[in-house]
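Students often ask why we bother predicting the structure of a whole assembly rather than each chain alone. The short answer is interfaces. A chain on its own may look different once its partners are present, and contacts between molecules only exist in the joint model. In this exercise we take two input lines together and write out one structure for the complete complex. Read the inputs first and try to guess which parts will touch.
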Amino acid sequence: MNCTDVAAILDDHALRRLSAAERCALDEHTAGCEPCALASRAQAALLALPLPAMPADLIERALRAIDARAPRRARPRVIIVGAVLAAGAALAAVTAARLLEMTGDRLATAPAEQGGTRDSAPTQTASPEGSAPALANGPDRQPVSVEDVQSDYVMMIRVPPEYPHDALERKVDGEVVVEYTIDKRGSVKDVRAVRSSDPQFEAPAIAAVSQFKYLPRVVAGKRIDVHGVQTVMRFTMSVSPPAAPPLATKAAETVRQFQLTKPPAAPPVGPTPGASADPSPGLAHPADYAIFDRSSAVAWKRAADEDFRGAELELDELRASYDLDDRQSNQVWGFYGYIYTQYGDYGRAIEAYEKAVAISNYAWPGQWTSLASLYFARHQYDKALKTLLDFKHESKSGRVSDEATAMIERLRALGVTEETL
Amino acid sequence: MKSERHADFARLIAPHTDALFRAAYRLTGNRADAEDLVQDVCVRAFANLRALEALERPKAWLLKIQYRVFVDGARRRRRSPLRATADDLDASCASDDATPEEIAEGSIAERRILEALSRLDTEQRALLALHVEGYTLAELESITDLSTDVLKARLYRARVRLGKLLAEARSTPSLAMES
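Now the answer. The structure tokens for the assembled complex follow.
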């Protein structure tokens, strides 16, 4: 018998099943082999260790611990990421990660109930235009704003929801999480409210979301339906006071805000100091938005019909005829990138996406990852990584989407890391 | 609905709590920490209840979680087995027909083992604790994500080290009695 045999006996739990002859051989070996002697003595000691009985109420106490550590009930303005994960599909999970990232600065994040791996402690941060101050300011600051916090999918057309009349009168803020499918054309269908702070916000939210238009998701050259996409729509009673412009900073990358075209009846406010001083473009020029939106709708319709040349022409015209603000430029360049990618003209697609993400306040996660994918496809791995790192840098939370993380890993496997740049 | 989930969970976990607790005791060396550890595992398992229900062998998964929680140093408080309460020892050692001498002898031997275990590396200790529970190398492989060869080598080294620590403890018996 040698050391390997002894180890095998111990590994296989065979100590107690040894025949007399084997026992003898073992003793003989251990008498002259200190390590094996120690090892078998240790094993015997371990086996001899008495174990206390399991407390009878262990499960009960565990359940109490579960309750005690359960995520605190989310406040109305909070997105429960767990609900997103519950949608199940991999794509939905990506969306969930985005939602968490994109809203991380303004949420009390509830730990995902389903995704136990995400161990986020609830963090409470005040939102610059939080609902409480808004309500306090209520009578002075009447214009109603609606924010939407978006997922990875690039939205082409958004339609503001109607602020429920009753909520407006009572100056109630609200939030609805809607879940839906983006179909192969980029239209929205199967909309349902997953959660809401108040049922009265659900119908307007659903009605608005149903009119949203996206760039269809393309996988391996084919357009696909994307299920389980979620958007959080937040109804708040005020635009921000000039002192705290919420969208001037990086917050703009996470939350896009637009103003309802018709402010409530009384008192007449016109452009409030808040709106006019707000550097967030578009708020002061709703008319431009109307033109832009109309033109976008035409371009979207053509792209949905796979008339990419027609869509491109519409964008060319839009760009030639109007001064686009940053948000609009970002959207247009992103759209160009999408169209050129569909053409297979990767060089121009890259150029377009580079212009889109250069307006980093408004860049969509999907634009960053599309750009990185294009570089990747052209074997420009260092540029791909640089794009992803820039994405990470620009993202307020410092986190990126699962897609981006996966790409960083693939690059690492190819030997392209931050250090090699 | 909540209580329904609780009931589902209790039903699912009940067959495995014994094994979890035994492994946790060997890992932590005392009852209180063992209970804490099992509770940690339960909290995680509850969060993944639906996934857990779909598993063929939930026990392996549960042990894996426990192994990870322990090895990752998630233990917030560390209690030395030397500070194990009299309560612990009573519960674990006393059998109806043991003489006081036997009980005393048992306690000393037990403390020695726990003390020696506590001086092992976390991972060595975790491996031994799981192995002695009766798991095969193949099962340990799936719990620890280590290859069989690595497991063999580490188990052997861990045993030799534990043997040395025990031998040292025997030569200085006062150590075990200090507490």
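Check your guess against this: The radius of gyration of chain A is 29 Å.
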